[in-house]
Amino acid sequence: MSVKMPEPDQAVLARRAEIVAALQTIVPGEGVIAHEREMRPYESDGLTAYRQLPFVVVLPETTEQVSRVLAYCHANDIRVVPRGAGTSLSGGALPLADGVLLGMGKFNRVREIDFANRAAVVEPGVTNLAISQAVAHEGFYYAPDPSSQIACSIGGNIAENSGGVHCLKYGMTTNNVLGCEIVLITGEVLRIGGKHLDAEGYDLLGIITGSEGLLGVVTEVTVRILKKPETARAVLVGFMSSEDAGRCVSAIIGAGIIPGGMEMMDKPAIHAVEEFVHAGYPLDVEALLIVELDGPAAEVDHLLARVEAIARDCGSTECRVSTSEDERLLFWAGRKAAFPAVGRISPDYYCMDGTIPRAKLPLVLKRTRELSEHYGLRVANVFHAGDGNLHPLILYDANKPGELERTEEFGAEILKLCVEVGGVLTGEHGVGVEKRDLMPAMFSEIDLNQQQRLKCAFDAKGLLNPGKVFPTLHRCAELGRMHVHAGRVAFPDIPRF
Amino acid sequence: MTDPLKPRDAKDVEAAVGWALAEAKTLEIVGRGSKRGIGRAAQWDLSLDLSELSGVTLYEPEELVLSAKAGTPLAEIEKLLAEHNQELAFEPIDYGPLLGGPAGDGTAGGTVAANLSGPRRIKAGAARDHFLGFTAVSGRGETFKSGGRVVKNVTGYDLCKLMAGSWGTLAAMTDVTVKVLPRAETGQTLLVLGLDDAKATQAMSAAMNSPNDISGAAHLPAPVAARLTGAGRAVTALRVEGVAPSVVHRVHSLESLLKSFGALATLDETTSRPFWKSVRDVMPFAGDDRVIWRISTAPSRGHEIAAAIEESEYFYDWAGGLIWLALPSMHDGGAARVRSAVAGNGHATLIRAAPGLRASVAVFEPQTQGLAALTRRVKESFDPKGVLGPGRMVAGV
Hints:
The complex is a heterodimer. Chain A is an alpha+beta fold. Chain A is built from 17 helices and 18 strands. Chain A has helices spanning 10-14, 16-26, 36-39, 63-75, 128-135, 154-160, 167-170, 204-208, 242-254, 267-277, 297-313, 325-336, 338-345, 361-375, 403-420, 445-458, 476-480; strands at residues 32-33, 56-58, 79-83, 99-103, 110-114, 119-122, 140-141, 177-183, 189-193, 217-224, 226-227, 231-239, 261-266, 287-295, 318-321, 348-351, 379-384, 389-396. In chain A, the strands form 4 sheets. Chain A has a 7-stranded antiparallel sheet with strand order 15-12-14-13-17-18-16, sandwiched between helices. A 5-stranded antiparallel sheet of chain A has the order 5-6-10-8-9. Chain A has a 4-stranded mixed sheet with strand order 1-2-4-3. In chain A, strand 8 (177-183) and strand 9 (189-193) form a beta hairpin. In chain A, helix 9 crosses helix 11 (297-313). The longest helix of chain A is centred in the last third of the chain and has 18 residues, at 403-420. The model of chain A has no long low-confidence stretch (mean pLDDT 94). Chain B is α+β, with helices and mostly antiparallel strands. Chain B has 3 domains: 1-183 and 367-397, Uridine Diphospho-n-acetylenolpyruvylglucosamine Reductase, domain 3 (2-Layer Sandwich), CATH 3.30.465.10; 186-280, Alpha-Beta Plaits (2-Layer Sandwich); 283-366, 2-Layer Sandwich (Alpha-Beta Plaits). In chain B, strand 3 (56-60) and strand 4 (65-69) form a beta hairpin. The two termini of chain B are 21 Å apart.
């Protein structure tokens, strides 16, 4: 592991037996896991390159237990790492050697479905897909659909502000949540939002969403559910170059069409997926687009014809429209299995997550190819083309000495390139530990300090998930200091410009 | 009050806030002043007028992104977007007419700082959902940025959400970047006539729960409908937008869904547009001097809440979840009635009232003790000395 985590607190480590016993009084029975063997499954999340055995694992079942655990940790200066389903691709749930790992998996009930207000109230451990399944009998669904939706939990989705292949049209998590119950590190329980829209004051729900478990622990979520579109059809479009494919994406959006999904894969990704899933992808193309249109049949047919015409103008060599629901799902099965498919052709892979202005795609792909040669590591690219979110998958072998380190260096180069061309470090996977030390490529010290001051408003002792997101930790007292010197400002009198 | 501070650029804004800090002065952040009458009427030492920070700095239609200096007139942005068949999909309300000012006088910064939206809120979200990035000067006098110019970004805390709806109390934004979207090719509105509020709520819910992708769902009880459309009956309006074949299909589908509710009529594109603009801008209550409340609640509860507030006149947007409510002048502007009717089921904001009233009653929904304390800590994390619009949202914060 090449990322440095906060130094464990020796005083806490020394008190382990006492702390475990105290936690057992709050969460009785099997809710506290303290044996090394049983804690192993929690030592990493979806970013398996980083591992750390937790100090102790606690699996609460009620908001009251969460509140008491956090209050105890707060009073005793013990760090806490919240964890949902553990599918984070950025190490957001990486444990700390001196930190309580707070697993929210037992919060797995759908509490209320309210079709009249198009809302569902669920516990944070409910999986993303289970929400859609719980409302499917009335033809509803929950829109954000990260590829891990079968496993990832809605609590984790809130922490990461998860996206998915349909977020260009339907938004990310933050655009689809209405309210939550959250427990602060002090143990204080707050209810924010509800079944209504917008906040009465500051948009605290908006700031909690995507805060990577640094501000509080969510114990209940109210999400917006949507009626499924009447139909959806997907079209596979092949191109002889990713430049042509990129131009096609811009032309579709330029024509005023916002598809339900618009995904791109490059040749290595296409081949890996086709061998794995047999989705019927063409193998003689350099780039493949999947464009999905949804709505009434009249609309879908009308727009498909326009998309096909645009694709032809952009030099497509192949255009295949799904003719049945099974075929549409097969097109997507390929894309959604891209990561595991790449996992089959390489012992290990490392998934990046930068977003770029779409027009910069040819440049970024060209530079990525050059870097790939430089580092001697293969890359397969999958791309949420509609919103410019790029997932280069770097293929490596962790058993070869030095290859993981080279991979991380290569990945960092790609992300810095994304920032350089006007993009950002992460589109949907989060900063976590993975991109933490790259934050200064995008933010100044003032920017980062302001974000940490906000953290202080929620967690003044810095006990919740420290070591994630921010490369340098500052004490809140230090961040709060002001340096105002009347004699030294530019305008000793009222400034007139 | 002294003349406003009128910075010419972002650097000047930093200097102005730095000066205010050093001199312990308070500043009211203002663009072109179109929403100045909203919020608690507090006393500030000076206005920080950002109207000279004007101009679109980046517009790439195919990237769906636009950046502008905070004081850029919204009208200029909307005109530019229209030239490229695009728009701000969140349909920001123009508060001008309702507050007795001119129409079309908002700015880019004010639009996001007030988290504006319109009838399309139920489908496309509010300003918060389209706000991608900004540069601002905090109450510490420091220039900082957050977000970016791409539509998908989770790098660091989403401070855009916090700025949206903070009414200039956390930082003075100097540049903002928003997501823009293609304008719908066409649109139509189906009207259901003569429904009472409860029945209308059901009709709107049935439409929203159908796959017809409704982009506006409003109900005007008879007295309000009469003022707006001249109709003698209540009007329940459902808007669909998109490509022509889809719009036709969905209107037909809605007609069969809703014909059992009451008599139907349709508004074509040319009549539909001004109708929704009137709903958006609360035109039924523009031009009188009643107190105006804006209530956001669960759509199914709206009609019960409205009915519980005596002497009020009202209409609904957002499928019943948004109530625009007018009350005759009374000592507390109806605050007691409104607050007890909402009672934890959403929030009510006093939008139009004389300054005296806006100084004596809470303008924004009072928060529970825990949330109020957190709000205060959040404010202090950006503006520890209370330089930026203190008291505009909450007394003493």
